[in-house]
């Protein structure tokens, strides 16, 4: 099961034994695990994709890293028979980080990547799983890029159905523009140095 932070209490009547909470760095985890929980995990990182990590305005944010994925994988490998376990994950909106974490945990527990992805999509059809998390998990789990590819395809189809432009494409253009601005500023500084009187070369003079 995957849900938003504010929806956690709705599951207190369910037989949840394993609980995962994904929060922003510096945030206090306000979610209260169901009373039946035997094992819980809380991780703090920002909901950033790879393209966002390259943008200056996100420089102070803490993106998901490989060590976070390794903790999720270890958590999943403890759950060898998921039919006997009740798994609940939450993040701010229940759409990005927690679905990605659920896919990672299910894959680590022995499900095929396609099956894990499909199971999570079934319980959270609105999911847009964090692609950086799934790219890193492909490295940790040696799944050959399968999880990241499925996330990309799912995302493209979701935005196409909704009639919206994928925000990633917007951010890619922003990154390109910012890179061009950096190049332009460097070029202008270079020209300014060359045009200084002491740097000018006058023909016929040495």
Which key features would you list for this structure?
206 residues, alpha/beta, Protein-Tyrosine Phosphatase, Chain A, four-stranded parallel sheet
Account of the 3D structure:
By secondary structure, the protein is α/β, with parallel strands linked by helices. The chain has 2 domains: 2-162, Protein-Tyrosine Phosphatase, Chain A; 167-197. It is built from 7 helices and 4 strands, in the order βββααβααααα. The chain has helices spanning 50-53, 66-77, 97-108, 113-123, 131-141, 146-162, 167-194; strands spanning 2-4, 18-23, 39-44, 87-91. It has a 4-stranded parallel beta sheet with strand order 1-4-2-3, covered by helices on one side. Helix 3 (97-108) crosses helix 4 (113-123). The longest helix is centred in the C-terminal third of the chain and has 28 residues, at 167-194. The chain is elongated, with a radius of gyration of 23 Å. The model has no long low-confidence stretch (mean pLDDT 83).
First-last Cα distance: 78 Å
Percentage beta strand: 5-15%
Percent in helix: 40-55%
Number of strands: 4
Report the top-level CATH class of the largest domain. Answer: Alpha Beta
Q: Mean pLDDT, rounded to whole units?
A: 83
CATH architecture of the largest domain: Alpha-Beta Complex
CATH superfamily of the largest domain: Protein tyrosine phosphatase superfamily
**Biggest β-sheet, characterized?**
4 strands, parallel
Question: What is the H-and-E element order?
Answer: EEEHHEHHHHH
Q: What is the fold named in CATH at topology level of the largest domain?
A: Protein-Tyrosine Phosphatase, Chain A
What is the radius of gyration? 23 Å
| Poorly predicted sequence stretches spanning 5 or more consecutive residues | none
Q: Total domains, how many?
A: 2
Give the overall shape: elongated
Can you count the helices?
A: 7
Strand order, sheet with most strands: 1-4-2-3
Name the structural class.
alpha/beta
């Amino acid at each position: 099961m995957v849900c938003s932070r504010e929806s956690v209490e709705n599951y207190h009547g369910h037989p949840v034994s394993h609980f995962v909470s994904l929060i922003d760095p510096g945030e206090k985890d306000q979610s209260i695990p169901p009373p039946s929980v035997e094992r819980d995990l809380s991780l703090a990182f920002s909901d950033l994709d790879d393209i966002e990590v390259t943008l200056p305005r996100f420089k102070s944010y803490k993106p998901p890293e490989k060590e976070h994925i390794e903790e999720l994988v270890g958590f999943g490998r403890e759950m060898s028979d998921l039919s006997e376990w009740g798994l609940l994950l939450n993040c701010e909106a229940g759409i990005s980080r927690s679905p990605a974490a659920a896919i990672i945990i299910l894959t680590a527990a022995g499900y095929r990547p396609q099956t894990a992805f499909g199971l999570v999509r079934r319980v959270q059809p609105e999911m847009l799983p964090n692609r950086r998390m799934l790219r890193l998990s492909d490295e940790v789990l040696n799944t050959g890029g399968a999880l990241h590819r499925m996330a990309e395809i799912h995302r493209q189809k979701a935005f196409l159905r909704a009639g919206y432009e994928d925000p990633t494409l917007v951010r890619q253009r922003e990154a390109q523009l910012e890179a061009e601005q950096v190049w332009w500023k460097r070029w202008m500084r270079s020209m300014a140095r060359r045009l200084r009187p002491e740097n000018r070369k006058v023909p016929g003079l040495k």
